[in-house]
Design goal:
Radius of gyration: 18 Å
CATH topology of the largest domain: Aminopeptidase
Structural class: alpha+beta
CATH superfamily of the largest domain: Gcn5-related N-acetyltransferase (GNAT)
Strand content: 25-35%
Strand order of the largest sheet: 1-2-3-4-11-5-10-9-8-7-6
GO molecular function, one term: acyltransferase activity, transferring groups other than amino-acyl groups
Protein name: Acetyltransferase (GNAT) family protein
Largest sheet: 11 strands, mixed
Number of helices: 7
Keywords: Transferase
Shape: globular
CATH architecture of the largest domain: 3-Layer(aba) Sandwich
Order of helices and strands: HEEEHEHEEHHEEEHEHE
Distance between the termini: 39 Å
Pfam family, one: Acetyltransf_1
Helix content: 25-40%
Oligomer: single chain
């Protein structure tokens, strides 16, 4: 993963606060999921830093969790030796925005608005984009926008996009169950690319769980390439 994509990946979905544990940066997520509630490498680390990061997690009432790139085998081995187990393998994908702006979006299919309308927040909440996750969007600095997707004059999808440098990152794509498999997600992604270009960004990136084969098939068909992969490593002690 190149520096521009890596910077955008972190900056457009930030934790509520960070603490340093040697070579790790530990995020406080306030219930907003592993992405912002995990520790990641941010310099040279030693084994004791893992334990220091776990103590920070404990002080915040979080499950000790680390985010490790697939190729970081030394870190993965050190975590597994300490009882951490892999969760939620994820791929980071990206594409040139110009590759998604080669055709017009049908009229009144997608709109960009910030702050999000109540219906967009309701669509997110109906899926897995909880109020705590929406709070992450609220604290991201501009430029950013929320996308509304419509089918048959009904609000049916929502997504969030933010920019850091030349890269726009797409987060929180949610389509209501009733309106899935109607091609709306494809138009939402294209709208993100159009908006990114208008703001001066040249690339669009996103993260997708490897278990979400349907979404991954859509992104592959649209021309996204895999730039990196990672997993979460958590230690969930039994009572």
């Amino acid at each position: 993963m190149d520096r521009d994509l890596a910077n955008a990946f972190e900056a457009t979905w930030p934790a509520a606060e960070y603490a340093r544990a040697g070579g790790f940066l530990v995020g406080r997520g306030l219930g907003a999921g592993g992405r912002v509630s995990s520790a990641r490498v941010d310099g040279d680390w030693v084994g004791d830093d893992i334990d220091r990061a776990a103590q920070i997690h404990a002080g915040w009432g979080q499950v000790p969790m680390f985010r490790a790139l697939d190729q970081d085998q030394d870190l993965i081995a050190a975590l597994e030796q300490r009882g951490y187990r892999r969760e939620t393998p994820t791929a980071i994908l990206d594409i040139a925005a110009a590759d998604l702006t080669d055709c017009a979006i049908p009229p009144v299919t997608t709109f960009c608005v910030w702050p999000p309308m109540a219906i967009q927040r309701d669509i997110w909440a109906a899926g897995n984009i909880t109020r705590a996750r929406q709070a992450v969007m609220d604290r991201v600095p501009a430029p950013k926008t929320a996308i509304l997707g419509r089918v048959e004059d009904r609000a049916a999808a929502a997504a969030f996009v933010a920019i850091q440098g030349p890269v726009a990152m797409l987060h929180g794509i949610e389509v209501l169950d009733r309106w899935r498999r109607r091609g709306l997600a494809r138009w939402v992604v294209r709208q993100a690319a159009f908006w990114a270009q208008e703001q001066g960004a040249s690339r669009l990136g996103l993260a997708v769980s490897r278990a979400n084969t349907g979404a991954r098939a859509l992104y592959d068909a649209m021309g996204f390439r895999e730039a990196a992969g990672y997993g979460y490593y958590a230690r969930r002690d039994k009572d």
